[in-house]
Batch of 3 targets.
Target 1
Amino acid sequence: MIRVVMPAHLRTLASFHGEVQLEVQGTVTVRTVLDALEAQFPMLRGTIREHVTQERRPFLRFFACGEDLSHDSVDAPLPDAVASGAEPLLIIGAIAGG
């Protein structure tokens, strides 16, 4: 089971509380996790990544095991701790301003 933690506004849109647990087939990557997330919660399509380009939306970041994965390839395998469910994939809203 892959664990995903998301910002409150996305949890509200998908009508759930806490973290999501997903089954991901094959290699666990950001892309496969987002595919599984959008399959389970279709209302999230287009909120985390663009519909057409599948690029990450601005002001959202991906973190796992204390590392920012936002600029890594979405097809790079996630850390073993995420793939095993020991650690969650965090989808965090970035804060802009100064």
Note: The mean pLDDT is 94.
Target 2
Amino acid sequence: MTTALIVCIGNDLVADDGAGQAVHASLEAISLAAGTRLVFLGLGGIDLLEVMNGEDLLVVIDAVQLGAAPGFVHVLDWQAIPALGPRPVSGHGIGIREAIEVGRRLYPERIPTNIYLIGIEGKCFNQLGQRLSPEVAAAVPRAVDQLLRLLP
């Protein structure tokens, strides 16, 4: 049986940073295939290593800032996930790529074979107490659809 881990990252107290949490809430209402685990993390980064158990597939869902229009849904495989640079991919400190690379050195048996990022392009990451922007809220169902296409 193919195993999959879906990790949704975000904080619904900070505007578009809540995109991952909104996707998580949508996924909780869906019956996912056997062998699929759904996890929510308020912060990503190195915490990602704690939830991996060597699954075949890892899909991380998070709000991103990659320069596209707000609400655009990126689907990036491992090769396309950018490293942190002067402009972070995610607001959670260490990026997905960096966390996985650390994990490959420390816990190689825990790192999934196939890794994807579904990133919802956000526009507001500095307004405490604000809801998702309309563009990001509208992107949540599209992100769920993209995720379901990746699952076995």
Note: The first strand starts at residue 4 and ends at 9.
Target 3
Amino acid sequence: MAARAGISPGVARRYLRFLADSGAVDFSLRYGAAGRPEHLYHWTATSSVL
């Protein structure tokens, strides 16, 4: 997502965290067999932040 938006991965993470905190997106973690969990974001049906 960061590359498509033309921003750094850190900025993308901070913005997605802001959207999750404001309720515009739902946030969940998906754990695999090994390594770090994947952060999953989904637009909410009633998002009005943007």
Note: The first strand starts at residue 25 and ends at 30.
